[in-house]
Amino acid sequence: MDQIDAVAETADAAAPALADLAPAVRAKALVALADALLEHADDLVAIAMDETGLTEARLRGELKRTAVQLRLFADTVVDGAYLDVRIDRADPDFALGPRPDVRSGNEPIGPVLNFAAGNFPFAFSVAGGDTASALAAGNPVIVKAHPGHPRLAARTAEIGAAALEGAGLPTGTLQLIEGQDEGVAMLKHPLVKAASFTGSLRVGRLLADIAAARPAPIPFYGELGSVNPVFATSAAIAARGPEFAAGLAASVGGSAGQLCTKPGLVFLPADHGLDAAIAGAAAMEEHRMLDPRIAAGYRHGREAILSVEGVRLVAPGSVRFDDDGQGWVTPTIAAVALDDFRPHPDALLGECFGPVTILVESPAGTDYADLLESLFEGELTVAVHRTDGDDVTRLVRAAARRAGRVLFDGWPTGVAVTPAMRHGGPWPATTSGGTSVGTAAIARFVRAVAYQNAPEDVLPAPLRDDNPWNVPQRIAPAGESTTWGASVS
Questions:
Q1: Domain 2-224+434-446 is found in CATH 3.40.640.10
Q2: Which of 239, 443, 471, 480 is 20 to 30 A removed from 130 (C-alpha atoms)?
């Protein structure tokens, strides 16, 4: 494919110049990209509403989040801590014999391929978190557009490339390709050095296997969805039952449930008594799903859940298809006794992408920690609702082994864009256990290089003694090895 070669070669040509740019230049370019997106908000949001069916309020909020994320990474670049610079001074009296001068730091990995997501047309798409973190690390980015919003992808890429190049970044820093075959071909291209993906487990696994099967395998950072179990104690329900019901319905129904952090299973006491409150809170206006294919998949998954013996409806919800084949939905909330839940993992334990959740009604004395460890392998989130009198230590420890984020007395949707945030988890939540939100996301797109006895004039700027980028340097002076371990009593 001539086009694929041309795009890859352009990105590869841009990579050295981009890597050598001072942090201030890259940071200003990220801010310029954020500004440009907001300047074109009316245009971009209108296109997104037409292509995705998401509401204007949701899309404007997501676009703002995207801009904030870019600005967060601008500060991350200037701070420089992500470079992890370490300098070991030459030491003739080193404890194991003379030590050379050794300096190491993180460097850009090279051209990154980002598969845009369908359910977040801004925040996980052309200029979203994967792109932002890869650019911040100093890498050119090639975005494979999502077929659910091709016009938005093209317009965002046009605005983004112009903003970045106008701020001094090289031509080819941000490029767009379209098509499934083209995406696979680019993933296999030898000039691409890493890839990221947000989407389904099936497609993510296929792409991860392709990346691993290359003659020279590359890192593939896939975020593949999650059930996001919620556990509520009897005391929590007694203390905050109406609030719990309202929060559950909002988390399940928001954006028609098309969020990777939607709570799909809620474990709560069998005598919770919240049916009426949940049904009332779930009585929402219908919302269009992203596209007919997703709507059809949701209908199939919902029907499979409701067909299981012992499942009852708390909030019936609805699915309607219009003349254009678009699906319109309201939240469905079902309930099932724990004993009826256990025999049906295929129908009830997997992710159903859309506004449905299952209340698993558990008898008094149920050990939630044992349930979590026996039923779940890897999740993006685990939520715990409790009161001050509840001992949930074992449950929290189990949750930390199974998820990338453990949250309390809240709902997993609405991922905060903050430095400490983690949006990832053990397989199958992600392919790598990394994060695609928060400043640690930049670590996916760098690799460490050590320089031994290197002349000062050939060292990368962050490793030089004069430290022209003014980044943190962890320095091990000569002589310290003789005191290693002395502070341990």
A1: no
A2: 471
Q: Catalytic: which of 260, 351, 352, 379?
A: 260
Which pLDDT score, from 0 to 100, does residue 381 have?
98
Q: What is the mean pLDDT of residues 388-396?
A: 96
Count of Cβ atoms closer than 10 Å to residue 391 Cβ: 9
CB 388 within 8 A of CB 404: no
Distance CA 361, CA 208 (A): 37
448 exposed, middle or buried (CB, 10 Å; 0-12, 13-18, 19+)? exposed
Task: Look at residue 172 and tell me whether its pLDDT is greater than 70.
Answer: yes
Cα 236 from Cα 390, distance rounded (Å): 9
Domain boundaries, the chain: 2-224+434-446, 230-408
Supply 294's token pair.
């997703």
Q: pLDDT tens for residues 38-81?
A: 999 999 999 999 999 999 999 999 999 999 999 999 999 999 99
Residues in CB range of 445: below 8 A, 6 or more apart:
108, 109, 112, 133, 134, 137, 139, 194
Could you say which of 51, 62, 223, 361 is catalytic?
A: 223
DSSP letter, residue 85:
E
Interhelix angle 129-136/56-79, nearest 10 degrees: 20
What CA–CA distances, in Å, run from 329 to 259, 282, 299? 14, 12, 9
SS3 451: strand
Q: What is the structure's pLDDT at 368?
A: 98
Per-residue pLDDT tens over the stretch 82-107: 999 999 999 999 999 999 999 999 99
Residue 352 appears among annotated catalytic residues: no
Specify the length of the chain in residues: 489
Mean pLDDT for 425-452 is 95
- The DSSP result for 152-213, as a single string, is HHHHHHHHHHHHHHHTTPPTTSEEEE-SHHHHHHHHH-TT--EEEEES-HHHHHHHHHHHHH
Domain covering 230-408: architecture: 3-Layer(aba) Sandwich (3.40)
pLDDT value of residue 1: 62
Q: Compute the average pLDDT of residues 238-254.
A: 97
**Could you give the angle at which helices 23-39 and 41-52 cross, rounded to 10 degrees?**
70
- The reply to whether 260 belongs to the active site is yes
